[in-house]
């Protein structure tokens, strides 16, 4: 798989005129608008030219990469969705375009319905001011306007907001023309999503999920245009939604994840119409996703991080990105049974993550502004990217592409240790907080000083004991291997043969060095003469060559009482020892001092 | 003597069936092309997307019996193609010449076919149909050949012609070329087999 890219690049060089588009990910949709099985790309082209007086938008329909149709829109859309509203055959998709406070519905690309979200209640004071304004003299107007200024600006109706911005000359006419229009406050739609009604075959009828800047989350049923669900992001008025992501089906259960402009992420469920805060970040989010299978929440932030949270707000993993993430897109790959997450970074790099693993990436010449993925034309897995200068790039997934997390894992290891450390810090297995843990933590907090002190005392005591034992071992040379560094290391092993009272003690001396010779060695045996008699207690050894063991033997006779043929009473298993000392001639300190414990002697008859 | 042999071989070939594999992306017109070759009594008026594959029998204009395996072009069935590579004598690769966006997919799938071990060491003639030539934004066969870089296919005889499965235009010409090439290939294979057996003796 290495070498061959996973994405086939569609060549658009010879296309004339070359398609051009300025849009956002939310303003792009894929739809079978003509009901001919050929899925077309729909996008709102937003023109922000400086010479044009007002920014305007057109809805463009591309067949393949050819612009086939366009239609001016009455405002700048926030989102475009293609949905099916009923089950009648042939299934005709309806295009929903959210502009300011309304959703425009198009069928066969012809205007079909306009839905406006319900107005909010206005402040009493504002109503009062508008009742007074037309009838009172213009000299008293500034006082009235000042009273309006005392109200929170975002809680005023658009009419009042406009009035406050005007100069005195303009006010008269404005009041005259608008005195009878209702003082209604309407929120704008900031985000829109589709929610399937039931999970059935392909193209099931859907509902629309709308998020308004007043913090309301509405679900609109597009057949009778009724609101079937109304919720709030949270009770805080300042939490303005910016991004939403929806999973589930309306009939059974669904989850709506709402990200606000100040970096909070809230979760709404079918049974819970007020959002529950999942996590809050200090930095604005650039994208938020609720993944379908593992139900985790993916977020990309302005401080170049890509994070994954559980629905309970636990940070599962995070990845430090090389640059600012511009847009985030889920890539459901049903044939592979997984969902990739595509992140477009500033500079033109697009990365594909499978959970925390980077599985693929490619790079374009310039920053990608908008992405859309799905069935386009006759092909199932098409990723369409729109760059900052308006170029449309189309990538088609290769049929044989497979995304293995292992490859990505190795890639991230190679790319730098800092990425790894962030990922590891977040996955450390911490134990659950039991009551014992909590009590212990409280105790530790209260008696921190004495805990620390007693720990230190114990630690030093342990070290002291260890050091003393080490010194003793060195001084007594009580081991079977010599510890003298200036000399070749020598190993001594002993074996006792016989059943008594006469024993034979075999000693094996082995030189462990590879090149040094061990010469001038002497073996000395030492035993309590009341218990054992050793005819020869000293033996001078020949030089011991490396690798060739030397075996010497000694005769040891146990002392028995001549009367009752029993060992003396002072001999106990504890002191039935023969000390063996291996010494170097001319040195007072033995190289090895070992004790051989002797078996109990049989009585001699 | 040699000529008689050849003649006998030719007659023999006429008796046995030739197997053609029909490949191409979904909605390129494979089934419509096969439908056109069938007897008018067996033709169907509505062509639906093929599921898996279909085996069709028909006689070419020169009277050769042809078994055509009409493979489905849908993404999830394309992995079935390779199972038929072993026992095919020729390949028809159908391209939708109006679907410019997917030329890159056409090329990718073609490369996968050509690199397959069951095909890369055999001489199998490949006929390309630039289908849907009647569509308004269809490309000419020369442009398709350039876009797919067909000139890089060196080991296999290939031929491209524009066609229209709706009217039947261009279909006969291509099939005639394919049958001729398949005969050559078979003769070559037989001669090669003969010479090999002689060597072994």
Could you explain how this protein is built, in words?
The complex is a heterodimer of chains A (605) and B (201). With 605 residues, chain A is an alpha+beta fold. Chain A is built from 8 helices and 36 strands. In chain A, the strands form 9 sheets. In chain A, strands 1-28-27-26 form a 4-stranded antiparallel sheet, with no helix packed on it. In chain A, strands 2-3-4-5 form a 4-stranded antiparallel sheet, with no helix packed on it. In chain A, strands 6-7-8-9 form a 4-stranded antiparallel sheet, with no helix packed on it. In chain A, strand 7 (93-99) and strand 8 (102-107) form a beta hairpin. Chain A is elongated, with a radius of gyration of 43 Å. The termini of chain A are far apart. Mean pLDDT of chain A is 82; it is low at 407-425. Chain B has a single domain (19-190), classed as P-loop containing nucleotide triphosphate hydrolases (Rossmann fold, 3-Layer(aba) Sandwich), CATH 3.40.50.300. Chain B is built from 6 helices and 6 strands. Chain B starts with a helix and ends with a helix. The mean pLDDT of chain B is 82. Chains A and B meet through strand 27 of A and helix 3 of B. Chain A: Residues 16-269 form the Bardet-Biedl syndrome 1 N-terminal domain. Chain A: GO terms for molecular function: patched binding; smoothened binding. Chain A: It holds the Pfam family BBS1. Chain A: This is BBSome complex member BBS1.
């Amino acid at each position: 798989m290495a070498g061959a890219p996973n994405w086939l690049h569609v060549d658009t060089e010879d296309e004339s005129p070359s398609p051009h588009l300025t849009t956002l990910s939310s303003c792009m949709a894929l739809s079978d608008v003509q009901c001919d099985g050929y899925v077309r790309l729909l996008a709102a082209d937003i023109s922000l030219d400086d010479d044009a007086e007002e920014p305007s938008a057109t809805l463009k329909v591309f067949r393949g990469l050819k612009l086939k149709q366009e239609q001016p829109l009455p405002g700048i859309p926030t989102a475009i969705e293609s949905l099916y509203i009923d089950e009648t055959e042939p299934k005709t998709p309806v295009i929903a375009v959210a502009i300011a406070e309304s959703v425009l519905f198009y069928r066969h690309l012809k205007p079909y319905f306009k839905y406006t979200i319900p107005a909010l209640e206005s402040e009493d004071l504002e109503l009062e001011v508008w009742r007074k304004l037309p009838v009172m003299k213009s000299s008293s107007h500034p006082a009235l306007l000042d009273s309006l200024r005392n109200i929170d600006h975002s809680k005023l109706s658009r009419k009042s907001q406009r009035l406050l911005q005007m100069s005195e000359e303009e006010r008269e006419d404005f009041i005259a023309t608008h005195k009878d229009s209702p003082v209604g406050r309407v929120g704008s739609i900031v985000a829109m999503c589709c929610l399937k009604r039931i999970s059935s075959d392909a193209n099931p009828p859907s509902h629309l999920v709308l998020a308004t800047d007043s913090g309301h989350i509405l679900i609109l049923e597009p057949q009778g245009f009724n609101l079937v669900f109304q919720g709030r992001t949270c009770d805080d008025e300042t939490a303005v939604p910016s991004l939403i992501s929806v999973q589930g089906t309306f009939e059974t259960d669904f989850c709506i994840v709402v990200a606000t402009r100040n970096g909070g992420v809230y979760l709404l469920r079918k049974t819970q119409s007020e959002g529950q805060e999942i996590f809050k970040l200090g930095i604005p989010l650039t994208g938020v996703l609720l993944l379908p299978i593992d139900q985790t929440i993916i977020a990309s932030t302005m401080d170049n991080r890509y994070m994954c949270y559980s629905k309970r707000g636990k940070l599962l993993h995070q990845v430090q990105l090389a640059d600012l993430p511009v847009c985030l897109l889920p890539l459901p790959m049903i044939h592979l049974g997984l969902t990739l997450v595509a992140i477009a970074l500033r500079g033109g790099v697009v990365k594909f993550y499978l959970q925390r693993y980077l599985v693929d990436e490619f790079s374009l010449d310039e920053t990608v502004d908008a992405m859309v993925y799905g069935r386009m034309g006759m092909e199932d897995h098409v990723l369409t990217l729109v760059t900052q200068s308006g170029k449309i790039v189309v990538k088609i997934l290769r049929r044989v592409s497979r995304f293995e997390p292992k490859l990505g894992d190795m890639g991230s290891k190679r790319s730098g240790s800092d990425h790894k450390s962030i990922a590891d810090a977040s996955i450390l297995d911490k134990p659950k907080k039991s009551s014992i843990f909590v009590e212990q933590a409280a105790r530790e907090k209260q008696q921190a000083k004495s805990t620390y002190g007693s720990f230190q005392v114990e630690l030093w005591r342990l070290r002291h004991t260890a050091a003393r034992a080490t010194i003793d071992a060195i001084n007594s040379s009580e081991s079977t291997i010599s510890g003298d560094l200036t000399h070749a290391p020598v190993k001594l092993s002993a074996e006792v043969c016989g059943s008594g009272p006469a024993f034979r003690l075999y000693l094996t001396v082995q030189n462990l060095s590879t090149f040094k010779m061990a010469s001038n060695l002497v073996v000395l045996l030492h035993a309590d003469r009341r218990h054992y008699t050793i005819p020869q207690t000293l033996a001078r050894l020949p030089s011991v060559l490396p690798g060739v063991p030397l075996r010497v033997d000694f005769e040891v006779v146990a002392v028995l009482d001549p009367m009752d043929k029993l060992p003396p009473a002072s001999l106990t298993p504890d002191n039935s020892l023969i000390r063996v000392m291996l010494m170097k001639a001319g040195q007072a300190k033995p190289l090895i001092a070992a004790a051989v414990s002797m078996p109990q002697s049989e009585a001699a008859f | 003597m040699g000529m008689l042999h050849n003649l006998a071989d030719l007659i023999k070939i006429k008796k046995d069936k030739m197997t053609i594999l029909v490949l191409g992306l979904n909605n390129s017109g494979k089934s419509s092309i096969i439908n056109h070759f069938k007897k008018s009594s067996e033709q169907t008026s509505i062509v639906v997307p093929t599921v898996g594959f279909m085996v069709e029998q028909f006689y070419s204009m020169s009277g050769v019996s042809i078994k055509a395996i009409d493979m489905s072009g849908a993404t999830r069935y394309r992995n079935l193609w390779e199972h038929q590579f072993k026992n095919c004598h020729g390949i028809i690769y159908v391209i939708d010449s109006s679907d410019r966006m997917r030329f890159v997919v056409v090329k990718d799938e073609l490369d996968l076919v050509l690199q397959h071990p069951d095909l890369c060491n055999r001489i199998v003639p490949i006929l390309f149909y630039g289908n849907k030539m009647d569509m308004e934004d269809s490309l000419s066969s020369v442009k398709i050949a350039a876009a797919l870089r067909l000139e890089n296919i060196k080991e296999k005889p290939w031929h491209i012609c524009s066609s229209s499965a709706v009217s039947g235009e261009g279909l006969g010409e291509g099939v005639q070329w394919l049958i001729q090439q398949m005969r050559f290939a078979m003769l070559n294979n037989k001669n090669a087999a003969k010479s090999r057996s002689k060597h072994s003796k």
